[in-house]
């Protein structure tokens, strides 16, 4: 049996990935996106200035490295832009009061906002997770807490970047207030 001519293979159109879009974005736009991930101008400039990244792992590795290199001033800038994750609407007012008191004690002791990466903590357990972490970290000396806060900022930035790379927000991008005026 003889076959007739075959049709050429059909190619799907190329659709850019979120990483492609980030790599091709104007520098100011890329820096603005990065400022939402970690509220440090130097960090955002460093990551934006080293584009393009060949794959998401390369971007995440560069973000981690830049976060580890934050100076005390960069760390203070990043901490100043953070706030605690929002609590679910049905959270009891007593929980809000307990969290406000713990946060005030933390800020009085260390002079900056408490930061924590919620990770995969279920929404109904977030407040307990945060309260336990604040209470535990209040016992740290200031230098030890600075190291922990810097690590939590790095984890927050990484989680937010992963949300951007997926092309949609995740819990790591939504709980904290966006940067304003930057």
List how many beta strands DSSP finds.
0
- The tally of helices reads 8
Summing up helix and strand content along with how strands pair, one would put the structural category as mainly alpha
Give the topology string: H per helix, E per strand.
HHHHHHHH
CATH architecture: Orthogonal Bundle
Total discrete domains: 1
CATH homologous group name: Oxo-4-hydroxy-4-carboxy-5-ureidoimidazoline decarboxylase
- Mean pLDDT equals 85
Euclidean distance between termini CA atoms: 71 Å
Shape: elongated
User: Which fold does the CATH topology refer to?
Assistant: UraD-like
Report the biggest beta sheet as strand number plus sense, adding barrel if it closes: none
Strand content: under 5%
- Bin the helical content: 55-70%
User: Runs with pLDDT <50, length 5+?
Assistant: 168-182
The CATH class label is Mainly Alpha
Q: Radius of gyration, Cα only, in angstroms?
A: 21 Å
């Amino acid at each position: 049996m003889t076959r007739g001519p075959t049709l050429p293979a059909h190619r799907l159109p190329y659709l850019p990935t979120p990483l492609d879009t980030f790599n091709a974005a104007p520098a100011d736009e890329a820096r603005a996106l990065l400022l939402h991930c970690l509220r440090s101008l130097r960090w955002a400039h460093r990551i934006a200035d080293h584009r393009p990244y060949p794959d998401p792992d390369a971007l995440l590795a560069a973000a981690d490295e830049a976060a580890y290199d934050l100076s005390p001033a960069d760390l203070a800038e990043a901490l100043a832009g953070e706030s605690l994750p929002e609590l679910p609407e049905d959270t009891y007012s007593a929980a809000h009061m307990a969290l406000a008191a713990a946060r005030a004690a933390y800020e009085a002791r260390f002079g900056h906002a408490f930061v924590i990466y919620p990770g995969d903590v279920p929404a109904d357990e977030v407040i307990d997770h945060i309260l336990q972490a604040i209470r535990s970290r209040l016992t740290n000396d200031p230098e030890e807490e600075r190291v922990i806060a810097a690590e939590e900022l790095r984890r927050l930035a990484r989680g937010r970047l992963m949300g951007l790379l997926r092309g949609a927000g995740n819990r790591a991008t939504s709980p904290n207030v966006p940067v304003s005026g930057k």
